[in-house]
Request: fold
Amino acid sequence: MFTKVYDKVKQILSNEWKFLILVVVISFITMFEFPYYIDTPGGLLNVSDRIEIKDSYTSKGSFNLAYVSELKATIPTLLIAWFHPDWDILKEEDMLYDNETVKDLMLRDQLLLQEAVGNAVIVGYQKAGKKVEIITEKVYVGYVLEGAFTTLKVGDQILEVNGTKIENKEQLSKLIQTFQKGETIELKVFYDGKEMKRSATLKEANDRIMVGIILTQISEVETNPEIEFHFKKSESGPSGGLMTALSIYNMLTQEDLTKGKKIVGTGTIELDGTVGSIGGVKYKLKGAVKKKAEIFFVPAGENYEEAMKLKEKNNYKIEIIAVAHIDDAINYLKNL
Reply:
């Protein structure tokens, strides 16, 4: 039996070796990944498709997130990017912070999405005059600065510092200031499903005691009416905060802010309603124009200036509105 199988395989290899080599070469060309990423204009995501609120109001138009499409670099995608004016080739290290891995980046973006969603719920419900109560606030390590002398990792939820329970970012920051430069603190964290011990030796910068980390705070809330989210695992990052808050507000209020229009936007959202800057504005604006959006909300400042330059250069027929606070967007839409 084995001899027959061997002879059959030998015969196939002998007769079809050219074809098999071609298959291997094509597979290599299409599947081998280089240490680059390719950013391209993305599409739009109707935010209401990811939000479920009991007895919410419907709208004639839509609030949409604009996103950047990111491709791994293969020979075909690199060739397209070389000639396509809207495709940019980026080195892998240029997309990462110092002292960060791709895994850290992906985890950090997931944490930032959760933070943005929590902030958007609080802001949207408060603006609509609906009940929203913060139940817990969980503090996570979003990034460890290069040179920080600590065993903390991205994704650590900080539970205690030297035996003191951590309740939120503000309390943790104040607690750190009670220690001295060069002092080593012990931290209890929750990571990968279990509690662990970490340590950090404190530094001083700008007259402040620092661990050398950037924190992310995720708020768990109780609302009336209830709200649920259905974001996909591939969706991450904080830049959808503004549009998520606007969509929640619109679903909770009888007046339809969309006025039947396709509205696109980008920007982070803070608990006080402040809108923060983001990256990839040019890709998001190009995606909005391609999908024939009528209004594009963008953070005031450099993001707005970049978007306006691109609009003028390409003669885009879209209304670009600078937003520093969610009230700017709400007031603009109310006055349409």
About this structure: Residues 102-128 form the longest helix (27 residues).
